[in-house]
């Protein structure tokens, strides 16, 4: 990291002039965010790191200027991301992966009005902030696996018309399937993975009340292949493949987003920070010079 920061001042400054360059810079700024969130050294111990922390404070305004219209990318946060860091993320991210992080709160949900896909698996966010997540206006894909949630939490999602819901390794029972039928969620779901929960074979008939359901996965439940075979023999619109049911004649594929990660952007990270940092630095130098000249002029008078 030290060499990375040292190389900042050796790169030329390039000002974005078109929408493609703005999109490019947006991706690089996300790399900057990831790097800054991984820094846990107190600011007073290293002036260079302190300056980078200051750059993070300007990040919100920069993103709002450089990211119109939204761009479909997925941002994956590092494990030790603190709760307050969410307010620095760009509004235009379509897919956010905060699984296996130490985050406990989903702060400022209005910043994520563009969010289409959210992965909060293996966190405590689902139990703490499920109402905030349910309020996201464009959310279509949600992963809440390994969150220790119960049926009562799932019912709070009943009015969210998700296409895809993954809720494996939780404490769910047949009640979840019953409570979600004939709701906006139950009527919209196309992909439903409820593996490794306390789901019994008696609940299979419930999925007939899910009109759009294409794939239903039940690995690690009390439903066995014999139950699936019996169900398929009675309902010709379904077939079973391993431990999942599939509706014949329909297909569902998860929307893929370009991933923003360190490997993709490391060689360009310095350039992005240089654009941001040098512009801010020059402005601060100008302000300081103006302030100094004002003091000298006042002293002479």
From TrEMBL:
Source organism, top-level taxon:
Eukaryota
| Name of the protein in its database record | Leucine-rich repeat containing protein
- Could you tell me which species this protein originates from? Entamoeba histolytica
| Lineage of origin | Eukaryota, Amoebozoa, Evosea, Archamoebae, Mastigamoebida
